[in-house]
Amino acid sequence: MAGISGFGAYVPRYRLGAATDGWDSPGERAIANFDEDSVSMAVAAGIDCLKGHDRQEIDGVLFATTTPPYAEKQCASIIATALDLRRDITTADITDVLRAGTTALKSALDSVTAGSAKKLLVIASDNRQGAPKGDAEKNSGDGATAFIVSNEGVIAEQAGSYTISENMMDTWRSAGDQFLRTWEDRFAIEEGLERILGEAVSGYLEKEGASVKDVAKLAIYAPDGRRHAQLARQLGFQPEQVQEPLFGRLGNTGAAFPLMLLAGALEDGTPGQLVLTVSYGDGSDVLGFRTTEAIGGKTPALGVSGYLGSGQVLDSYETYAKWRDIWVTDASRRPQAQSPSVTAMWRESEQNIRFHGAVCNNCGYVQYPPQRVCVECQTRDASSPVRLSDRPGTVFTYSLDYLAGTVDTPLAIAVVDFESGGRVLCMMTDRETSELEVGLPVEMSFRKLRVVNGIHNYYWKAVPRRHAG
Questions:
Q1: For 307, which DSSP code?
Q2: Per CATH, which fold does 359-464 belong to?
Q3: Please, what is the average pLDDT of the chain?
């Protein structure tokens, strides 16, 4: 039976919290760095999910988000390339609605059940932006989660589904809007959230012949912590049945939120549990999963809990506002950045997006970028591509540039030596200057270099290696 055979997640390193000057809120929320977006976070979640799995077996990528960097260009193809997947796969973006994540997951389950694919990678990622200091900003969070859907090695089998579609104007963002918009709170909650989710959950239970007491964990959408607790009580669930919503630690991650809670439930899952994930947005999707005996043997490298335990609170809200262009600051007096060459980006995709180096077939020496001649043994035109994006490394040397005019001053440039061979000169991000040192363990992270003329120029940067706290 089709189900989930692997899962992973990604939560950015930085948080707004009680110690953040100017934040004025006791709770924490995860925030993407200035060079992160829904695509870069999706790649990070995909890497976490794919560890221990053969990437060549993935038959497609479904990407769900309400905040795609492009209005007209597929983002799933960028993600598939950055994850170094096969070219003969299916890719699709599912966007513009909060329940896009569960819609993508259900589509993958249906495809595997129908036999049109054997293994599909579903990734939901969002970085929605509320008005400064408003409730939406305080309750939202940035992050991504990923699932491998197949009928082999399943840790959570599909256990039915139920969907409601309804046109509901409660939360929206039109083209050109920077911030979310919402309608009157009482109407949005009573006629939207409570009514629709109540109908969806009761409809699922009736359809599947189950009752509330049969559910081990409920991973349900809600805009904030108070509404989440209230909604679970109204539906008849006991506190121990409700998956921790992570408000005050992570925040509502939009299209990724119900799937993030599902991933959290699977991290602590035991065999035979019925887990429901319930989304909301112009209706609702309810997806049921029954955990199998294999649940304890497949855990992500870090997952939701690992990434949550390796965060750092930002010192100042002003820094976050600068990352999001919420406050206009004096720009550096430098020439405007030139538009990247689309032709060059396409030509160098293997080394810049897939992050392929070359290993010499004669002596095994690894070079990046790939070269025709091996600098170790001088053998010509005898090398094979090798993926470096998922290899750990250490800082060989580094420098700090305080005059570069970057958003993240100073600009950190590092020479990174990979543990299995190879060396790269690259930028560093998600770093504090106080922690930089020779020998610092790092890993590679897919990030934006810049956006010019609407072109999002992605590349790989080094970040301090994260460990579960």
A1: H
A2: OB fold (Dihydrolipoamide Acetyltransferase, E2P) (2.40.50)
A3: 94
